[in-house]
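Journal club prep — side note

Before the paper discussion, L.F. wants everyone to see what a predicted structure for a comparable chain looks like in C-alpha cell form. Sequence:
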Amino acid sequence: MSMQITNQADYALRAMLFVARLEPGQVAPSNLIADQMDMSRMFLSRINSQLSNAGLITTRRGALGGIMLAKDPAEITVYDVVSAIDGPINLIRCTTDPSCCSLGEHCPLLDFWCRTESLMITQLKTTTLADLAARSG
C-alpha cells in the first residue's frame, strides 16, 4: 500500500484552485468546475459540503449561484484543504501515539518519522492557493 493523499482531497484542491483563479467576488457553478476538472458532479457536491463546513468556501444557490472562496486565496493553505477532507496528516500512527509500538519512545525510527511528518505539514501549511495559482498560471 502506498502513502497517498486521497482522490477526494486532490479533487478538492483542484476545485479550490479553479475558484482561486476567478476574480474576487465571482462565483463558479459547480457543474462548470466538475466539467473543467473532469470529476463527477455528485463527488464535487460532497467535497463542497466538507469545504463549506470547514469555512473554506461559500455557496450560493439559484440561477446565478455557485461557489466562491470564503477567504482570500493567500489565506487558504494546502493543509487547510487537505485536512478539511482527509483529517489530520499522520504518516504513521506512532507519531501521535508512541505507545502503539512495543518499542514506544525508544524506537530508533520515532524521531525520523516525527521530523518527516513535521516537514510535510510545514510544506502544506506554507503553500497557499495564491502560491499555486501563481505557479500554474
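L.F.'s comment for the group: Residues 7-136 form a domain with the Arc Repressor Mutant, subunit A fold (CATH 1.10.10.10). Keep this in mind when we get to the figures.
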